[in-house]
Amino acid sequence: MSAHVPTSVDPVFLTELLKAGGENLKKCYQCATCSTVCTLTPDHRPFPRKEMLWASWGQRERLLGDPDIWLCHQCGDCSVYCPRGADPAETLAAIREVSIRHYAVPSFLGRLVAEPRFLPLALAIPVVFILAVLALAGTLTLPKSEIVRLADFFPHAWLNGSFSLVFLATCGFALLGASRFWRDLQRNWPVPGTPRGLFESLLPVVNEIITHDRFSKCTAHDHRYLAHLGVFWGFICLLLATVVAILVILLGGDYPMPLYHPGKLLGNVGMVLLLSGGYVLLKERLSTAGKTSRSTYQDLLFLSILLTVTVTGGLVQVTRMANSQSAYYLYFIHLVAVFYLLMYLPYSKFAHVLYRTLALFHARRTGRL
Ligand code: SF4
Ligand code: SF4
After folding, report:
1. Containing domain of residue 263, as a range?
2. 306-339 pLDDT, tens per residue?
3. Distances from the Cα of 11 to the Cαs of 8, 244, 250, in angstroms?
4. What is the CATH number of the domain that holds 75?
């Protein structure tokens, strides 16, 4: 099935993988235990053994256009059973991280988000952006009124307008990166003459995303599946609650919404789900932080931003109801974190929602899954 794939060795790519968390990949002696224990791999040309081989050779093109690296959910089963401690789960995570950087448009944003030394700059951008919008809106100083109203600090029209504009640009960049990834998928694993139908391919992908049914088959770290499911549904609930809030504002409804409003209830359910799942994932990552290097940085950063968005969102709600001025400061931090999460989506670990969905669709379309 694989055709016309350049197989040249790229030592720079190999070095990138080693730095991104694949430092044990050279220990692999190709016993194939990992592919045997992986419950998510298809039987035909299973992963991750072949990826370990390609990675140790530094075969850049083979790996970047390999849908299998995105079919892996980093459950860790293969690493538990690997007799050599080659850590195939972390190697695949490192390949995904390097892939995200490779497909980043513009490329400097990929580096900005991936490298710890640029973190202050990556955080400074949303801070400066928000301050500039506040200056334009004429609300750079904290409101003097005794009643805390967040709209007095950041008027809704300015908030929704400025964030929507930047997010639209982000979506455009994400589409450019995704189209380059799709082109490489097609080169490495061409769609057969009679591929599965569009809906026949798409429906199982949607089902998998909302149920995580393939992820649930992992055994060694089965709690990761539940934690990830919690984070996923928590995020969806918060996203829907935000859309409801924007609609209420646009339609001139009662805002801030009362606690019993369905949109508010949805947001609070989402907050609990995301906090619970995020806490489990972060705790696990911290407990293994010493074993890996930069892939852990990306994992930790993404989870930290996600949890910051959630925690500050909850605290803003409480302090606003208590009429405390600290609500404004918390709101500012909340917005910086929201900006970071959404506007850097194609460059952070969050990009897996994009590339994994495409890889799953490609795998269904070609009959690989
Ligand atoms: S990664 Fe480990 S289990 Fe997999 S082939 Fe290499 S040595 Fe064997
Ligand atoms: S981490 Fe899990 S899903 Fe990924 S290759 Fe290993 S066993 Fe398979």
Report:
1. 110-365
2. 999 999 999 999 999 898 999 999 999 999 999 9
3. 10, 50, 54
4. 1.10.1060.10
